[in-house]
Amino acid sequence: MTPRPRRVLGAAVARGWLLVLLLLVWEAAARRAGDLYFPPPTRIVRTMRELWWSGPPSRLWLSEQAVDDFVPSLARLLLGWALAGVAGVVVGVGIGLSRVAFHLADPVLQFGRAVPPPALIPFFMVVFGLGTSMHLAVVVFGAVWPVLLNTADGVRSVEPLHLDSARVCGLGGWARLRYVVLPAAAPRIFTGLRVALGFALILVVVAELMGSGDGIGARLNAAEREFRPDRLWAGIVLLGAVGCVLNALFLLVERRVLAWHRGARRMST
Amino acid sequence: MLDITGLSHRYEDGHQAVEGVELHVDRGELVSIVGPSGCGKSTLLRCVAGLQRPSAGRISVAGRAVDGVPDDLAVVFQDYTRSLFPWLTVRDNVALPLRRRGLARAERRARALDALAQVGLDATAGKHPWQLSGGMQQRVAIARALAYRPALLLMDEPFGSVDAQTREDLEDLLLAVRGGAGHQGGAGHRGGAGHRRGAGHQGGAGTTILLVTHDIDESVYVADRVVVLTGAPGRVHSDLPVDLPAPRDQIGTRALPAFVRLRTEVGRAVRRP
Ligand SMILES: Nc1ncnc2c1ncn2[C@@H]1O[C@H](COP(=O)(O)OP(=O)(O)OP(=O)(O)O)[C@@H](O)[C@H]1O
Ligand SMILES: [Mg+2]
Hints:
The structure holds two protein chains of two kinds. In chain A, about 30% of the residues are buried. Chain A is built from eleven helices and no strands. By secondary structure, chain A is an all-alpha fold. Helix content of chain A is about 80%, strand content about 0%. Chain B is α/β, with parallel strands linked by helices. Chain B is built from nine helices and ten strands. Chain B has helices at about 40-50, 80-85, 90-95, 105-120, 135-150, 165-180, 215-220, 250-255, 255-270; strands at about 1-10, 15-25, 30-35, 55-60, 65, 75, 150-155, 210, 225-230, 235-240. The two termini of chain B are about 30 Å apart. The site of adenosine-5'-triphosphate has 12 residues of chain B, from helix 1.
C-alpha cells in the first residue's frame, strides 16, 4: 500500500492536469499576444495579491481592501442564502404536507419562480434604496425558489409505507415531521439548498454591480472606471474561486448529513 | 379484543377486495389467516390497523370502534423493507414507537436491545437497515413490533424471507409472546441465552395476534384458530379451531395425528373454495 500523502498527490495530479495545461497555454498565448485586455494568469495573480493579500500576517495577509470587498459580499450572500433556506424549507414543508395548499399555491409558485430575479432589482432599489437590504432582498427572492420547490416535492413524495409506519408507531405532528418527513425529504432539501447557493452568489454580484458602495461587485465597477482589465480579471477569478469553495464546503456537510442516503442507494443498485 | 362485522372494502378503482367479513378474536388468542394471493388479507389487516377506512362494516378493538390507528397496536408490514426508516439505525428504528409509551430515552434503548436480542439481532443494533440482508430486515420489523409490547399485534406474512431454522425459532417466539410474560426459549437462543421479558402492556394477559401466512403448517402450529379466506372478493371460507395441547414444540406437535388432520383440512379449504 502506498503511503497516504503519495496517494493524495497522485489523485491531485490525475484530476488537475488539464487545468494546469490550460493555465500554461493561456500564460504562453497571453504573453505572446501582449493584449491589455487578456493579461496572463501570473499577472492576474499578482494583481490579486496587490489588491487583497498584501496585509499583515496577523490578519491572514488580508489587506484592508480585501476586508472592505469580501466581508460585505460574503455577509450578504450567506445571510440571504440562510434566510432563503429557512423560508423555503418552512413554506415548502407547509405546502408539501397539504394537498389543497399545494394545488392552490402551485400556479403562484410557478409564476414566482419564472420571474428573473434581476428584473426586480430596480424595484427593490426604489423600495430599499442602495444598501444591504436591497442586496439581501434580491438574493432571498432568487434563492428561495429552488429550496421551496424541492422541499415541497420531497415532502410530497415520502414513501407511503413510511407514513403508514409512522402512524402505526404513533408519531403525529412534530414527531412525524422530525423523524419521518424531514429526513425523507432531506435529499431533495439539500439539492435545493445547493442550487440556491449558486444562485445567491450570482445574485449578490448582480445586485452589487447595479448599485453598491462596497463589495466585490463594487470593486468590479471601480476597475471598469479606472480601466484596469487586470483588476476585472482578478475579480472574475476571485468569484469563481469563492463559488468553488462554497460548493465544496456544502458538499462536505451534505455528505455527512446524508450518509445514510448514499449508503442506501449504493445498496439498492 | 377484536370484533369485525360485515366488513367490505372496495378500492377507488372499483375492485372489491373483501366482502362481508365476520371475525371475532378473544384477548390473548392467536389467529392465523390463510388464503390465496390477492384474496384481501393485507386489505383486512390495513382496515383493522385503521390505515384504511373500510367502505362498509364495523371494526372495534378492545371495545372501541376503529377510527384512526388504535393505541395499543403494532403492525409488521408485508413489505417490511420499505416500512423501516433507512435514516435511523436498527436500534432507533426499533425504539421509535416506544416514544408513545412515554418511556425515558435509556429505557427505550434498553427495550429495543431486548427485542433485538429476542430475534437474534442484538449485534446489528448500530447498523442501518440497508446494511442488513432481507431476512434480517424482516426480523428488525418484527423486533420493532415486539418492543412495543402491544395488546394487538398484526403480522402480514412476517417470516417470508428467513431460513427454515430461524422461522421455527420465530414461531416459538410468537407463542411465547402470545402467552404473556412466560418466555420459553425464544428465537435469540443462538445470540445468547435467557433474555427476560419485563412487564408487558396494560392487559397483562399476553398479546392478541393476527398472523397472515402462506405456510399452512405454520398457520396450524402457532394458532388457536385458523381462518381461511377465499378470493375475489375476499370472504371467510372457514374458521377452524386448533385444539393442540398447550406447550407446543416443533418436533412433537407436528407429529401429532391432530396436527396432521388439521393441516389437511386447512390445505383442502385453501385449495377448494
Ligand atoms: N391500493 C389498491 N388499489 C386497488 N386495488 C388494490 C389495492 N390494494 C390491493 N388491491 C387489490 O385488492 C385485492 C386484495 O389485495 P391484498 O393486498 O389485500 O391481497 P393479499 O391477500 O394480501 O395478497 P398477498 O397474499 O399476495 O399479499 C387484490 O386483488 C389487489 O389487486
Ligand atoms: Mg398481502
